[in-house]
Amino acid sequence: MIHYIIRRFLYALPLLMGINILTFVLFFIVNSPDDMARMQLGQKHVTEQSINNWKQQHGYDLPLLWNAEAPDQEKITRTIFYQKSVGLFLFRFGVSDSGRNIGADIRERMWPSLALALPTLCVGLIVDISFALLMVLFRGTYMERTGIVICVILMSISSLFYIIGGQFLIAKLVKIVPISGYDDGLAAIKFLILPVLIGVFSGIGSGARWYRTVFLEEVEKDYVRTARAKGLTETQALFRHVLPNAMIPILTGVVVILPLLFMGSLIMESFFSIPGLGSYTIDAINSQDFAIVRAMVFLGSVLYVFGLLLTDISYTLLDPRVRLS
Fold first, then answer.
1. What kind of architecture, by CATH, is found in domain 104-290?
2. Within 13 Å of residue 281, how many CA atoms lie on the same side as its CB?
3. Dihedral (Cα; 35, 267, 158, 147), 10-degree rounding
4. Burial 158-178 (b: 16+ CB within 10 A, else e)
5. What residues does each domain of the chain span?
6. What's the start-to-end Cα distance of the chain, in Å?
7. Which DSSP letter does residue 98 get?
8. Partners of 101 in the beta sheet?
9. Residue 237: how many other CB atoms lie within 10 Å
10. What's the pLDDT score for residue 8?
């Protein structure tokens, strides 16, 4: 198993290198430092001197890949690629275009994002899987058909409707929880209840339908029929055999959500004024702070690749045959 994990980890390294190079091309070649300066200065007729001053202040006046005028090894180190992209591999995010320490901001803002995303993910999984198992248990009856109709209706409604409707009904009319905001420590719970509930409720439709499809595929297999023939009830067959064997496709769906644990929900954090990484990214896009956007793009890619690695490891625990692949 150790060799399998090492092999998967080595597969991830060239992928991250490719992502870093692609990010560099998008931010510094397709969108040149001159273009960034013009957008940041926000003027229609920006002088060349103003552009050069802005690039010098933010370290964008260096050559892209090779500094022919620098001595020895500084020909490589005194370049935009080395100073702005290579450091990302060591999680040295540098300073934003507005002068803030990006690494410090990420360490501070990751906790509100985790506080929102982790309970939403865990509670959402339990609710979605339970609802899907209930539909499979009563498959072919009116209860399953009713459940499918409910899922389709929930999927057809925009997430913005859930957010605005939840804020109006629960926070403004009933006044059970605050409509938005955040606080430190345990005081943050009252601000997180509503976004967590909305996040779980808005995901029931798509999540339950997906898990129902997975469970129905397993229910029709021979080993489930054999279990029923040996005297197991339908409920016992679902929980003892169907659910464990359906964990691999479930893990595949969960890995897509893993980066959100750290990156946060862009829409949810913005509407509820939660100071997480999602709102941090939105604010950087609005202010055209390219250093923050570049760092968040790379961090999201790293988290996604790390999630894939965790999924591969989980596969080996659930199905030892994967180790031979």
1. Orthogonal Bundle (1.10)
2. 22
3. 140
4. ebeebbeebbeebbeeeeebb
5. 104-290
6. 12
7. T
8. 95
9. 21
10. 77
What's phi and psi for 5, nearest 5 deg? -65, -45
Amino acid at 294: R
**What number of residues does the chain have?**
325
Cα gap 280→108, rounded to integer Å? 11
Q: Which residue has the tokens 């691999």?
A: 248
Alpha helix segments (H runs only) across the chain: 2-25, 33-41, 48-58, 74-77, 80-84, 102-137, 142-156, 159-166, 189-202, 204-219, 222-229, 234-237, 243-245, 247-255, 258-263, 266-271, 277-286, 290-318
- The per-residue DSSP string of 261-315 comes to HHH--HHHHHHTT--SHHHHHHHHHHTT-HHHHHHHHHHHHHHHHHHHHHHHHHH
CA distances from 109 to 86, 113, 160, 225, 259 (A): 23, 7, 23, 50, 14
pLDDT, position 260: 64
- From first to last of its 325 residues, the chain has per-residue pLDDT tens of 677 778 877 888 888 888 888 888 888 888 888 888 888 877 667 788 888 888 888 888 888 888 888 887 788 888 888 888 888 888 888 888 888 899 999 999 989 988 998 899 899 999 999 999 999 999 889 999 999 999 999 999 888 899 999 999 998 888 888 988 898 888 899 999 999 999 999 889 988 999 999 899 888 888 888 888 888 888 888 888 888 888 877 877 777 676 666 666 778 888 898 998 888 888 888 888 888 988 888 888 888 888 778 777 777 776 666 555 5
Per-residue burial over 120-139, b if 16 or more Cβ lie within 10 Å, else e, is: bbeebbebbbebbbbbbbeb
What is the model's pTM? 0.82
State how far the Cα of 112 lies from the Cα of 195, in Å rounded to an integer: 12
